[in-house]
Amino acid sequence: MKKITIAIDGFSSTGKSTLAKQLAKELEYVYVDTGAMYRAVAYFAMQNQLIAADFFDKAALITALPNIQLEFKFNTDLGFAEMYLNGENVEKQIRTIEVSSFVSKVAEVSEVRSKLVEQQQEMGKNKGIVMDGRDIGTVVFPNAELKIFMTASAETRAQRRFDELQQKGDDVSYEDVLKNVVERDYIDTHREDSPLIIADDAIEIDNSYLNREEQFTAVLELVTDVVKTI
After folding, report:
1. Dihedrals φ, ψ of 132, to 5°?
2. Of 152, 163, 133, nearest to 210 (Cα)?
3. CA 83/CA 92 separation, integer angstroms
4. Residues 153-168, buried b or exposed e (16+ Cβ, 10 A)?
5. pTM of the model
């Protein structure tokens, strides 16, 4: 079967990563979670006191970019790659609500986006890749053979994220999670550099009322149809 590039974009907490992992496993493709890359940079900024609730030293973060080394390492026990920041596994640390509150602000910085997009394009040069994020189909891989744009209501996404954090033992409220989802939506869609928009040739999927298997089956059929045409 010919290999293609699959770009999955959409709002936060729409299950992009879950779908991408399912597809990559089924198709034996490389999976890249670009959100994890931006989260890792946000975590770096937090650890180095470059960002806080009322403070963001963008200039210092830009200066520090050469010192940020990102790498995905496959975990055979988990069945997917984890995010490493400067040699340290930060997969758990970058999934907190605190990192979520800063990641969109960090992703607004053009120099950060430029650095990560370059790395992402290099990862996908040989196709056979599933990549999810905010600008994959519009900026990273504008010529991707299949582009998916995922959406769902803010309330639905907040409930999913809240349930996930609760299962991990995080002490958060649904109201705080919903506020974070709404704020991230606004920043992601209004930033000057590569705002979150649906590509003209993307297929939009509202999964508010779809379970994971229904969604996976529908998208896998799309992949099959695309592969047949190339």
Report:
1. -120, 150
2. 152
3. 9
4. ebebbbbbbbeebeee
5. 0.83
162 touches 172 (CB < 8 A): yes
Q: Is there a contact between 24 and 33 (Cβ–Cβ < 8 Å)?
A: no
Residue 220 one-letter amino acid: L
pLDDT in tens, the chain (230 residues): 789 999 999 999 999 999 999 999 999 898 999 999 999 999 999 999 999 999 999 999 999 999 999 999 888 887 778 999 999 999 999 999 999 999 999 999 999 999 999 999 999 999 999 999 999 999 999 999 999 999 999 999 999 999 999 998 988 999 999 999 999 999 999 999 999 999 999 999 999 999 999 999 999 999 999 999 98
Distances (CA, A) of 186 to 35, 104, 161, 195: 16, 9, 17, 10
Q: Please report how many Cα atoms fall inside a 13 Å half-sphere around the Cα of residue 101, on the Cβ side.
A: 15
